[in-house]
Amino acid sequence: MSSKVSGKEPVLEIQNLCVDYGLGKESVQAVRDVSLTLHRGEVLGLAGESGSGKSTLAYGLTRLLPPPGVITGGKVIYHQPGGDPVDVLRLSDAGLRQFRWAETSIVFQGAMNSLNPVHTVASQLMDVIAAHEPKMSKSARLARAKELLKLVGISPDRLGSYPHQLSGGMRQRVMIGMALALEPQVVIMDEPTTALDVVMQRQILRQLVDLRERLGFSVLFITHDLSLLVEFSDRIAIMYGGRIVEEAPAAKLYKDPLHPYSHGLLNAFPPLRGERRELSGIPGSPPDLRSMPTGCAFHPRCPKAFDPCRTDLPLLAAPADRTEEDRTGGERTVACWLHPGA
Amino acid sequence: MTLTHTSDQPPAPPDNDTVLEADGLTKHFAVRRVGRQAMTRAPRVVHAVDDVTLTLRRGRVTALVGESGSGKSTVARLLAQLYPRTGGDIRLHGTSVTVRGGRRFRAYNRKVQMIFQDPFASLNPVHTIRYHLSRALRIHGHGGNGAAELQQALEELLERVQLTPATRYLDKFPHELSGGQRQRVAIARALAADPEALLADEPVSMLDVSIRLGVLNLLRDLKERLHLAILYITHDIASARYFADDTLVMYAGRMVEGGDSETVTQNPAHPYTQLLISSAPDPDRIVGEGTPDDTVDASGGEPPSLIDPPAGCRFNPRCPHAMDICRTELPPRLPVDGNPDHWASCWLFDAEHGPAKAESAAKAETPAETPSEVSEYSNFPGSDPPDPHETRSGSESDQGSAEGGAR
After folding, report:
1. Boundaries of each ABC transporter domain copy (chain B) (predicted)?
2. Chain Cα centroid distance, residue B138
């Protein structure tokens, strides 16, 4: 296992990934030219409304896209610890089978329903291990399953339980335990706590942060709840209309969001503390992928839109007006004509 | 201010009039006994809602906050008379009402309308918006005479929920609208009855984050213009603070705390409310402005079984301050710090049992450990002691609550 949170060593690089649904004229571009780098030991948050392409991105980079989805371009480079980088999108079937779960694992949206209801927790946990380490003895697998449950804070005597005998939060923990079974380098979490209550959500996230510090894996955390991300992730990328519109360290994004959409999203959550002020959310509704606006996809809803926004597509770049301060605490990029690149 | 058909009514009574009251409302659902249990076991019930008392006032929003399974939706359905109640009383303008369908149910739900959580499920996909709304208007006798008046009423309804121009939406099907627009149609349908009370069961939970506030602001606007009494059910206490005048907190079928929204969220008294607030996502925490988060949940965050709820206070198995009396006696509503509008069902605020406990909690706070080092599984929270004298010490927060009360 790698050591604790380290500097800037990339573990997963997404380069110009494009994903379409459907083929030919009927196709819809769900992810457009997305580049994103996940560093070792980091929690990278990916936020956006439904339909912004964040889940599609996760499925695309793990090659789990269901049929109408097609990857039309780009690369996903995975850097093995002490090995050559591999392009996940070009792996053979056998290579992919090895890669999945051992190197990256995924916790799905509504993970509580992704456990098989007719098998016990133990057999499902052991199944994962058996598939990847066939030489391991049954007793060793059972011991490992016990260890995994303990890791996520469930008492090992629940090994024989069926999923319906566990509460939603416990099922979610079992899923997280299963995702960590083979000590992967990257864990992708697609809205892992959306179906849970706030109290349970906080417990699970705290446990995750704690485990991350102990085991040193990286997390790609996908959610629509930006206020949660600000608290739990190191860096945040905001998606809108299939593109990343802003990427910045969490604290910086919270204090000084540059893209009007990030600003709007942050203002969409009423604060629990501080003065009560009138909030407005974002006017309009998310764009229809079949008829995306020209120029910046956000311009019809943007309060600050001006001429170039309607015609020219802004590219993700380090904002020229913010470089000075950004030398101190990690770089940031934004795709907005208000903050053109240097 | 209102539709044409209401303009000939007598002038409206002033705000803060009680519209709908629940008194000791109780609902138990029978548990089905399977096989041999049917012969041997005594019949068991789920104590979904026990002894809930609340008041909806004209022109005020009352929030009901709780986890899933706390019984908050059951309260809404009881108030809408969709379920028969097991015990207690529901009073509309002071008159006790019990209806089981038929004409009297219509008359009741003309006054009390409900909005459901999922606008994808609550609108019929095979009918247009025009059908949904004109049906509601006709049933409640607000359709007017003839097509022209109906059309006018429809357009006014859609304008009220800010779907303009109305003609663009009238002949659409639900699938052609976005989630936010659908929820607005659902609100318009409720308004077609010209109700006095609106029961909104998680009206924004299913919507995209960027449009939630738009719908909440619309509801608040309607409350102000039409003087509706709104019950806002939510699991998001931050939105209750934003939107509601009063907040009630529910846990495992019982009310645990209530009061002015600002007071409840800024000075939570009941340990459960404190846990709920410290669990809510708070971006200020990393930025160093918020309080460190170390409130403890000893039992691992599981609400109790409602078939066999714990004796005494239902929060006692999870409560870090639980005393002997909490395990045996049900706490009554006790005023918090002498504020008659803020109450908590917790023995910590009882003169006889509270102060001693507050001292020991204060002691637990003193050890040299910094809050960040306090283990997640330690037995006492480092902050948020339930000391009633300390919880309301800040003059700033007092001002905040006074402001909230004046709203």
Report:
1. 34-277
2. 30
